[in-house]
Amino acid sequence: MSNSPIQQQVDKRRTFAIISHPDAGKTTITEKVLLFGQALQKAGTVKGRGSGQHAKSDWMEMEKERGISVTTSVMQFPFNNRLVNLLDTPGHEDFSEDTYRTLTAVDSCLMVIDAAKGVEDRTRKLMEVTRLRDTPIVTFMNKLDRDIRDPMELLDEVENELNMMCAPISWPIGCGKEFKGVYHIHRDETILYQTGQGHTIQELRTVKGLDNPELDDAVGEELAAQLRDELELVLGASNEFDLEMFLQGELTPVFFGTALGNFGVDHMLDGLTEWAPAPQPRATDAREVVANEEKFTGFVFKIQANMDPKHRDRIAFMRICSGKYSKGMKMRHVRSGKDVSISDAVTFMAGDRSHAEEAFPGDIIGLHNHGTIQIGDTFTQGEVLKFTGIPNFAPEMFRRIRLRDPLKQKQLLKGLVQLSEEGAVQVFRPLNTNDLIVGAVGVLQFDVVVARLKSEYKVEAIYEPISVATARWVECEDGKKLDEFQRKVSTNLALDGGDNLTYIAPTMVNLNLAIERYPDVTFRKTREH
Ligand code: G4P
């Protein structure tokens, strides 16, 4: 088994996503990573890539206007004898549940931190999601060409706020105008920074050894002395890299550099391709599926609408978990029990959609979908099982949705339920009123839903503000206690698109009180499909 063709493909693959706060440098680092992967000849073209290649539908037009990239959902490139899949995590205004769910489809993550700012809000949230699977995290401290915070303090912040030990692999020498490079602890060499070379793969000067007098010449005596002092402190106080702890998500290797200057990105990539895990086993409701199994399995983690408006189709993004996809093969869509022949799956080579002949565990393929595929669906070669751990996430923004033409209520509900099955948005129907509440993780989702309701369901809807802070799915094993709970708080209860009971909290204080008052009821932030 261990040397089977599938095993060889599995061993090569590394599938990861980037987590960061907006403006920390995700787009820039993606460009440089692709430059190293030779997917781009010259970095600097990820944003707005593909525009002009496909005509855009209305809401893609809308995304484009807002400068949001949609065409680079999955990028595959070779690096260090590995085949790397980088899954894009929508950020800025296009932040959505897709961002969260993409993190359930990878085997590791790169966390990019703006070293002038430290750990920011969005990063904290995304890290919560990676915790669901204890995903291994590689850290890149970015923007060393600016004045940054004390590196030691940055490591402390990651350790305390994200509850993960840090093992620095490189250490910065100066920052801002005085940024001279990094000392690579594992290689015992200093790599010297050159400004103005960010768009190329650079030949960089290195100095071997920490006590080498050449180092003093290269960075100046003062910075060299500071580096030696700092390293003594750092190596004494911080953790050494430990592969096992990294793979358990307990320790993160930390690299320093500047994405804009394309410096340090290659150190990070070396670490990631060497240490990050190959496609991992995945839990299902029946058994654990291991990547090198001969039979094909996969699950859908994202559905994107109207990538090609000529066909008005949707693309279901599927992570392959085991076996091999080959063009024309038959797959069982487990939820419907139907066998389907897949002859036109797409892969996403550096942002372009191209037809895939073959794909392996860790790869993502796109299936054309006319509304039959839902988020979380499992595909197999006949075995009945369902991958778990592809949840819905409690929305954080809410609006009441109303129709301009009240006669189209049925159409509205149908559209909303369908869009919620696709994961575009979540819909809640309060038990006591006829309202429809739309909940989303990111604000752009609201606009997308109205645009799609209009174009696909021919209903014109508008939003009204509503005072809801958060939602939790509720469960209680004790039927009597659940009845009592339902009676007492019925004004706060609603059903979601899949008829699951949900607690709609007007404020966080209200939610916390309810949790305290009803200890037998479980309030969940995520719900399995
Ligand atoms: P994001 O995808 O995480 O939102 O961040 P993005 O890469 O778009 O970077 C946000 C801003 O930070 C950009 O500047 C980018 O050039 C800058 N940046 C990224 N990495 C570095 C770095 O290592 N050093 C410095 N000094 N800046 C960096 P912008 O002015 O907002 O956009 P642009 O006009 O340059 O595209």
Automatic annotation (TrEMBL):
<feature type="binding site">
    <location>
        <begin position="88"/>
        <end position="92"/>
    </location>
    <ligand>
        <name>GTP</name>
    </ligand>
</feature>
<dbReference type="GO" id="GO:0006449">
    <property type="term" value="P:regulation of translational termination"/>
</dbReference>
<dbReference type="InterPro" id="IPR038467">
    <property type="entry name" value="RF3_dom_3_sf"/>
</dbReference>
<keyword id="KW-0963">Cytoplasm</keyword>
<dbReference type="GO" id="GO:0016149">
    <property type="term" value="F:translation release factor activity, codon specific"/>
</dbReference>
<protein>
    <recommendedName>
        <fullName>Peptide chain release factor 3</fullName>
    </recommendedName>
</protein>
<keyword id="KW-0547">Nucleotide-binding</keyword>
<dbReference type="Pfam" id="PF22042">
    <property type="entry name" value="EF-G_D2"/>
</dbReference>
<dbReference type="InterPro" id="IPR004548">
    <property type="entry name" value="PrfC"/>
</dbReference>
<dbReference type="InterPro" id="IPR031157">
    <property type="entry name" value="G_TR_CS"/>
</dbReference>
<dbReference type="InterPro" id="IPR005225">
    <property type="entry name" value="Small_GTP-bd"/>
</dbReference>
<dbReference type="GO" id="GO:0003924">
    <property type="term" value="F:GTPase activity"/>
</dbReference>
<keyword id="KW-0342">GTP-binding</keyword>
<dbReference type="InterPro" id="IPR041732">
    <property type="entry name" value="RF3_GTP-bd"/>
</dbReference>
<comment type="similarity">
    <text>Belongs to the TRAFAC class translation factor GTPase superfamily. Classic translation factor GTPase family. PrfC subfamily.</text>
</comment>
<dbReference type="InterPro" id="IPR009000">
    <property type="entry name" value="Transl_B-barrel_sf"/>
</dbReference>
<dbReference type="Pfam" id="PF00009">
    <property type="entry name" value="GTP_EFTU"/>
</dbReference>
<dbReference type="GO" id="GO:0097216">
    <property type="term" value="F:guanosine tetraphosphate binding"/>
</dbReference>
<comment type="function">
    <text>Increases the formation of ribosomal termination complexes and stimulates activities of RF-1 and RF-2. It binds guanine nucleotides and has strong preference for UGA stop codons. It may interact directly with the ribosome. The stimulation of RF-1 and RF-2 is significantly reduced by GTP and GDP, but not by GMP.</text>
</comment>
<dbReference type="InterPro" id="IPR032090">
    <property type="entry name" value="RF3_C"/>
</dbReference>
<dbReference type="GO" id="GO:0005525">
    <property type="term" value="F:GTP binding"/>
</dbReference>
<feature type="binding site">
    <location>
        <begin position="142"/>
        <end position="145"/>
    </location>
    <ligand>
        <name>GTP</name>
    </ligand>
</feature>
<feature type="binding site">
    <location>
        <begin position="20"/>
        <end position="27"/>
    </location>
    <ligand>
        <name>GTP</name>
    </ligand>
</feature>
<keyword id="KW-0648">Protein biosynthesis</keyword>
<dbReference type="GO" id="GO:0005829">
    <property type="term" value="C:cytosol"/>
</dbReference>
<dbReference type="InterPro" id="IPR027417">
    <property type="entry name" value="P-loop_NTPase"/>
</dbReference>
<dbReference type="InterPro" id="IPR000795">
    <property type="entry name" value="T_Tr_GTP-bd_dom"/>
</dbReference>
<dbReference type="GO" id="GO:0016150">
    <property type="term" value="F:translation release factor activity, codon nonspecific"/>
</dbReference>
<feature type="domain" description="Tr-type G">
    <location>
        <begin position="11"/>
        <end position="280"/>
    </location>
</feature>
<dbReference type="InterPro" id="IPR035647">
    <property type="entry name" value="EFG_III/V"/>
</dbReference>
<dbReference type="InterPro" id="IPR053905">
    <property type="entry name" value="EF-G-like_DII"/>
</dbReference>
<dbReference type="Pfam" id="PF16658">
    <property type="entry name" value="RF3_C"/>
</dbReference>
